[in-house]
Amino acid sequence: MLKGKQKRFLRSKAHHLNPIFQVGKGGVNDNMIKQITEALEVRELIKVSVLQNCEEDRYTVSEQISSGAKAELVQVIGNTIVLYKESRENKQLVLPK
């Protein structure tokens, strides 16, 4: 579980990132979860955009993705979800204590 200071740090790092995944009409599926997990292993911090035509609530989508990819939900802002997962192979971010 992330602490407040760590979430603030991650939000500041995520600010300049562009969403690399979009959740649309089809919602969240296993293939998307697999791709998000792989992207998190490489990048550690990603943004996912929830499109207008998505039939599910953005908070439901964020819950499905974070639990499916075993990632920490940093923030849901507007239609954008920020996720963090510590990388095993290529660790880049050092979180404050």
UniProtKB/TrEMBL annotation:
Gene3D superfamilies: YhbY-like
Record InterPro entries: RNA-binding_CRM, RNA-binding_domain, RNA-binding_YhbY, YhbY-like_sf
Record flagged with keyword RNA-binding: yes
Record bears the keyword RNA-binding: yes
Span of domain CRM: 1-96
Recorded GO MF terms: RNA binding
UniProt keyword list: RNA-binding
PANTHER family xref list: RNA-BINDING PROTEIN YHBY
Protein name: RNA-binding protein
Lineage: Bacteria, Bacillati, Bacillota, Bacilli, Bacillales
